[in-house]
Amino acid sequence: MTNSVKLIILDRDGTLIEEKNYLHDPDEVKIIPGVVDGLKKLTCEGYKFIVLTNQSGIGRGYFEESDMFLVNAKISKLLSYEGIEILKFYYCPHKPEDDCKCRKPKPGMVNNACFELGLSIKDIYCVIGDKKSDVELAENIGVKSILVLTGYGRSSLKDGVCASHVTEDLKEAADLIIKEARK
Question: For residue 12, what is the DSSP state?
Fold first, then answer.
C-alpha cells in the first residue's frame, strides 16, 4: 500500500451489521441502514476499510471460527454488491478474561493488519465503532474515534464514553469525515 491510502478501521457488530449476541448464522446478517450509503461515499473519496471484531463466542465455545468466516463472507458479499470492498476482516477469538494482546482495545489486530497490508499507523484515519473498546482502541493507536449510536452506541454514550466525534450512524460519520477532509 502507498502513503496515499486512507484507511478506516470499522467495527463489525452494531456498526456495520445489526447487533445480535454471538451471531454465527450468515442468514441473520442484516446491514444497518446508512452503512451502504456511508461506505459508498467514503469509497468514492478514496478511503479503504478493514474490519476489526472481538468474537469471544469462539473462545466461549458458542460457535466455531468457520461460522464467523461465513458471517464475514456474507457481509463482504452484501457490500461488494454495492461496490464496497473490505480489504480484510481481523478478529480476536478470545474471552475478555484471557488477557490476550489482540482483543480490542489492545492494538494487536491493528499491528497485525499494518504488518500484513504494508501499512503504518499513520495510514489510519480513524476507528468507527459502537463501543468503548473501539474508542479506546483509537486512543491507544493515536487516531480519531467516531462513536456511532447504532448497536450499543447509545448505551456507550450514556456510560460516559468520550469519542473524538459522535454520529447517529455510519452515513453521518462518512459525511463528517468527508467534510473534515475538505477543510
Answer: S
Least confident of 3-17, 39-53, 133-147, 159-173: 3-17
Question: Of the residues 11, 67, 123, 130, which is catalytic?
Answer: 11
11 is catalytic: yes
Cα separation, 14 vs 43, whole angstroms: 21
Q: Tens digit of pLDDT for each residue in 122-135?
A: 999 999 999 999 99
Per DSSP, helices labelled H in 18-162 are 35-44, 56-59, 65-80, 108-117, 132-141, 153-158
Dist. CA 133–CA 74, nearest whole Å: 24
> What would the pLDDT profile of 98-145 be if each residue is shown by its tens digit?
999 999 999 999 999 999 999 999 999 999 999 999 999 999 999 999
Q: How confident is the model at residue 5, as a pLDDT? A: 80
- Residue of 13, 67, 123, 130 with catalytic role: 13
121 to 80, 96, 110, 161, 164: CA distances (angstroms): 26, 25, 8, 23, 17
Domains of the chain by range and CATH? 6-181 (3.40.50.1000)
Residue 37 appears among annotated catalytic residues = no
Let me know if 131 is exposed, middle or buried by CB neighbors in 10 A (0-12, 13-18, 19+): buried
